Amino acid sequence: MNTIKLPDYRLQSADVKQRFDKLKQRPIELSVEGLGKVFRGKKDVESLRDINLEVHNREFLIVLGASGCGKSTLMRILAGFETPSSGVAKLQGNEIHGAGPDRGMVFQSYTLFPWLTAKQNVMFGLEMTVGKGAETESEALQWLSFVGLERFADSYPHQLSGGMKQRVAIARALANKPRILLMDEPFGALDAQSRAQMQSLLLQIWSKVDITIIFITHDLDEAVYLSDRILVLEPNPGRIAELIENPVARPRSLDQFLQPEFLAVKKRLEKLIHPRMDEEQAPVFKMTKKGDEVE
Ligand SMILES: Nc1ncnc2c1ncn2[C@@H]1O[C@H](COP(=O)(O)OP(=O)(O)OP(=O)(O)O)[C@@H](O)[C@H]1O
């Protein structure tokens, strides 16, 4: 069988190298130093070990890894919902202690208040930081129009599709003008078409707002399509396996999915996340009868 020879994902053209040199010269928005997390219990679980990372201003960082490698634990520490067992996480040089308006969050499960309209959901956060009033309402409407949902301002979450709910969640998170958007599998529950639309919309939003994004996904195409860099974690305990500088050019488009650079990064991710099971170790249960025409 003929297979296409892909370029080495580590070989950077002068353009790509320049792009990442520039990225790394930008101010550091978030830093993680020697971060570890052990959940104490009957049996201790070491969820993260010695994570070191610097995320730069306006970077789009994807976090990827097999189930249980500590992606959500890392995100919860950055959000301030968990405290690390060792090491430190800093936002603009200040140690993270608890949640704060400098971090916006969007999760996979729709977290809108079902008894509030789309507009009221966006206003909710604003009322806590800015206060109630006509200004708050007009600002909420601006954010809804920014994500293309002005017409649905008075709709309740149950009247919106999954993609629309996530657009409201993004508008609500951005309305508080955070420094960082933390997204934990935000499109994981969407059908393939809505997911693709949301990915493109997120890239458009990111190009217009001064925001750094940290985004967890299991989807390799999504990782390559969205990222500047991809942090790959490995499990037991959760450690950094590799930090990949994505060579695929920006602006991104769906045509790039079949480009050699795109496929090369995807192939590398596949290798890191699903190491080929040694055939001898692979469990084989024969469920067919003798004479069945199966391979
Ligand atoms: N509150 C907790 N108490 C005990 N163990 C926990 C807790 N939260 C997470 N863990 C354990 O820490 C490890 C990492 O979990 P985490 O949810 O961060 O992984 P993940 O990479 O996000 O997984 P998935 O992709 O399945 O969501 C797992 O072994 C998990 O069981």
Automatic annotation (TrEMBL):
ABC transporter domain segment(s): 30-260
Keywords: ATP-binding, Nucleotide-binding, Transport
Protein name per the record: ABC transporter ATP-binding protein
UniProt entry tagged with the keyword Transferase: no
Pfam (any one): ABC_tran
InterPro entries named in the record: AAA+_ATPase, ABC_transporter-like_ATP-bd, ABC_transporter-like_CS, ABC_transporter_ATP-bind, P-loop_NTPase
GO molecular function: ATP binding
Matching Gene3D superfamilies: P-loop containing nucleotide triphosphate hydrolases (3.40.50.300)
Taxonomy, superkingdom: Bacteria
